[in-house]
Each structure stands twice: as C-alpha cells, then as structure tokens.
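Kindly inspect this one:
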Amino acid sequence: MFGKSENREDYQHIDRSVGGMARNLPDKSFIDFHQHTRSQLIYTSYGAILVITSQGSWVVPPHRAVWIPSNTQHAMKTIGTVKMRTLYISEHSIPHLPKHCCVISVSSLLREIIIAITKMPINYDENDRDGLIVQLFFKEMKPLRIVPLFLPIPDDHRLSKICNGILNEPTNKNSLEMWGDLVGASKRTLIRLFQIHTGMTFRQWTQQAKITLSVQMLAKKYAINHIAFQLGYDSPSAFSAMFRKTLGVTPSEYFIKEIFDEMEKS
C-alpha cells in the first residue's frame, strides 16, 4: 500500500508544513471525538464521511473536503467503504483559511495534489519535486467555495428535541405549532430560537436536514424513489427538484459527477 504510518499522532509535530496520511475504512467505521495540534483537511476519494462537531455535522462526499481547524473536537463516521486521504497542516502555513469548520470544493487538480502528498515521505525534500507539490497545494487552497452540506445542531433543549425528531423521522410533517405543543414553547418563540441558534428558519433547517440525509443515502446507493419515500416527499420528481435547486445537479447525477475513475490503486 502506501507504507506510511496510519497513526494521526505521527503527523502532529513533524518539521514540514504538511503531512499526508492515507487510510481505507469499511462502512460504518466510527472514529470517536478527538482533536489535533494541526489543522486537518479530510478528503475521501471514494465513499462519504460524516464529520461531527459540537456545532453540527458535515457530509463529505467525493470531490469535497472538510477543513477542521487545529484543536477542534470532532468525530467521524464512514458512509460506505471509504478511501480517506487526510492532510495535517501547520496553522501558520495557510493564514487566510477560516478559523471554523467548513466544506470546500476539491478540483481535479487539488484531488491529485492531495493524493500525491499522502504518498510522500513524512520528511519530504522541500527543495525538490515534493516541495513544489506542497507549494501548489497552498495555491490551490486559496479560492474556497463553501458547499451547503452543513447541518447546525442547536444546543437549546427544545430545538434539540425537534431537530432530533426530524432526523430520526424525516417523514414527520409536524408544523412548528405542533412541535411547540410537544416541547412546551410557542410558535413565535421557536421561530426566534431557530434563527438565533442555527441562523436558519425552521423550514430551511428541515430542508437542510433532508439534503444531508439524502447525500448519505446516495452514498449507500439507495434508489432515488426509496430516498424520496424515506424523506417524506410526495414523489421522486419533487425530491429531485429540491435536490437540484440546492446542489446544482440531480440526485442521479450527483455521485456520477463527483466520483472519479479509480486512478489510484491502493
């Protein structure tokens, strides 16, 4: 395989600006909450990963990556068989990057750069080809495009009960008034709390939840009509229309567009 350590601790105190680690993980693997001294870029060339923090969760399909700033507690769960390619980056190397977690687009070039870095020796030669690849990585990381695959999880106990109820039963069509009766809050109060704690309306949060759930189900290769039914849509076409409006492609195109041919043999 790659012949490099798969222990994340071996990459935190190296004297290079970037360290790259490759791991292949089976479906439903769970990596419990932890943090790193270095910032982390999590990318999967196959399958999908759910990254969880106290602020919410990010879905990371192929052609996307998630940026985790240093010392941020996070956990991960694989969705399908995953080829995870992780870079650990000195926080002073890319000072312009956000100080919060976010999902970014990965171009074809950036994908190949990430894979190349995971194959380099830990103490790569900064003055040779490997050093030039790292420099190109920093150039390619500059233009960030935030992708709407983040689901904020509110810490208010009333909102948390509502949100968990929707995630556990996405076909639930309770109105905000009905949820208010269940959690002991008025509709007006819940409208205000959703905006304060999530930056979204109740309707926007519900749609975002269904988007993140649908991407996870697509990663498991569920049929579109099955996903539409599981998420409570009246028809597959109604689900597809919502998906396309949000992510720019139809559900059937999404992973075809995102997954590259198997170019790395590992």
About this structure: The two ends are 6 Å apart (CA to CA).
